[in-house]
Amino acid sequence: MPAAPDLLTPGRVECRMLGPLEVRVGGWPLALGGRKQRLVLATLLLAGGRAVSAERLVDVLWGEDAPPTARNTLQAHVSGLRRVLGPVGAPAVVRRDPGYAVDLAGVDLDLARFRAAVDEGRAALADGRPDAAVPAFDSSLALWSGPPLADLASEPGLAAELRALEEDRLAAVAGRAEARLASGSSAALIAELTELTAVHPLDEHLRALLVRGLSRAGRPADALGVLRAGRRVLAEELGADPGAELRDLERALLDAEDLRGLEREAQPFLLHRDASGEQRADPLDPARSPVTIGRSPGNAVALPWDREVSRLHARLECTRLGWVLVDVSRNGSLVDGVLVRGGRRLLRDGAVLRIGDTVLLFRSASPARPVPRETGPATAEAPVSLLAGLSGGEHDVLATVLAVPAGGFTGARPEDLLAEVLALPVERIDEAVGALCRRFGAPDAGPGRVPALAERARVLGLASA
Question: In sequence order, which residues have a C-beta less than 8 Å from that of residue 178 and are 6 or more positions away?
Fold first, then answer.
């Protein structure tokens, strides 16, 4: 046990926030006073040396119930902290407009050490050095002795800051797991990631790490089960669908295994897994178009195990531009995360379809090309002002134009090919293409206006190239 400090000869000063609030000198804790006095110190430490206004401190201490003497009482708490910390010399509480701050010179603040270690781990991971990232994340997490500011956790004035600190800790846990996965240890991580995902079911990155771990451990069926569970909880809790990271993992899982002799260059197909997790490949024969998808066993692609699928949910039609999904269900279908309800959507190679709770990967018979992370006009990078006010017909035409690979408009007038895909009169296609060309600044004349529209839209960031 360290000797009790002589406050006239201060030793090492430690401020601890990643657990109960403590200030230690030479290993011994100081008595910081009453709850509100400690709350003032915690608020100043959270600011990391930046000034905190008197108004903010009053709000943290009393909220809407501040007494008329709040400013005077705040000054009394500051004076009390100075009496406690003054003999130690740090952290000094100083007056700084528009309120107060703490001078952290010479102070060992665990929050600062945590953030520095996390930055070190992330930098090592980004540099491709996962073996160096793991100990950095380990050291950052070892600083935690409980919930942040555990003795003040019930204070409503600190709720946002404490929630942010918990998120930072969870991000460090995820960073360590990612580094360990990159180092090759997947099986040992699965139990930890399973527990974390159960506690944080809406955290898509944690779920993605669990899926990667299961996949690398040779458990693809379990990985898809985790993805399906995530899709359900996101829909139930947020009314949302999985983001790009989880959708990319679904695509990779469905496409990972040997196709056992299926000649990709000869015929397109749908790839999915049945209720037991077995992979299935359903060839798509243009001579048998339309290909029906539904729960009824009579469908060409039958999904009898999925209760969310209608008896006849959708059909795939072969057109000169490629295969088109036609939704005929009540609850709709998803193509690359975009809802299609009672409509049509041209499928690109590598498109991920969601029919009910079943995910299917579409592979075309054309040579493979890189699959963009996001498709369709409603990408995260899309300038919202350019898409605002599009009619339903214009949106469908733009999505179809962007789904056609470069050089795909051959053999006929592009407007005629679009009319075939969308089952619309060519006059309506002409009108929509003209309106889109004018909106995006593409040439609105000549046989090349549709390819020019596609190129212009990609330049504007409306879709991945």
Answer: 125, 130, 209
Q: Which H or E run contains 360?
A: strand 358-363
List all residues 6 or more positions away from 384 whose beta carbon is below 8 Å from its beta carbon: none
Phi, psi of 89, deg, nearest 5? 95, -10
Kindly report, residue by residue over 405-436, the tens digit of the pLDDT. 777 888 789 999 999 999 999 999 999 998 89
Give the position of tokens 């214009």.
394
Residue with tokens 């980004």: 126
Kindly tell me if the per-residue pLDDT of 10 is higher than 70.
no
pLDDT digits (tens, 9 = 90+) for 247-280: 888 877 776 654 444 444 457 888 888 777 777 8
The rounded distance, in Å, linking the Cα atoms of 21 and 23 is: 7
pLDDT digits (tens, 9 = 90+) for 105-124: 888 999 999 999 999 999 99
Going across the sheet that includes 322-327, the strands are 301-302, 291-294, 314-319, 322-327, 344-346
Helices 159-182 and 204-216: crossing angle, nearest 10°? 20
Cβ-based neighbour number of residue 266 at 10 Å: 9
Angle between helices 159-182 and 110-126 (to 10 degrees): 40
Say if CB 170 and CB 203 are below 8 A apart: yes
In the predicted model, what is the mean pLDDT of residues 303-322?
93
Tell me the per-residue pLDDT of 26-71, one tens digit each, with 9 for 90 and over.
Answer: 888 899 999 999 999 999 999 999 999 999 999 999 999 999 999 9
Name residues whose C-beta falls within 8 Å of residue 371's C-beta, 6 or more positions apart in sequence. Answer: 251, 348, 349, 350
Q: Residue 43 corresponds to which tokens in the numbers above?
A: 């608020």
The predicted structure's pLDDT at residue 276: 77
The first and second tokens of residue 323, run together, are 């295969």
Residue 37 and residue 160: Cα distance in Å, rounded?
20
pTM (two decimals): 0.63
What's residue 401's pLDDT?
87
Sequence-separated contacts (24+) of 134-137 with Cβ below 8 Å: 134/176, 134/179, 134/180, 134/183, 137/172, 137/173, 137/175, 137/176, 137/179
> Which residues fall within 8 angstroms of residue 197, CB to CB, at 6 or more apart?
203, 206, 207, 210, 226
* Residue 283 preceded by cis peptide, ω within 30: no
Rounded distance, CA 86 to CA 357, Å? 63
Q: Rounded CA gap, 169 and 118, in Å?
A: 9
Instruction: Please report which helix (H) or strand (E) contains residue 109, including its range.
Output: strand 107-109
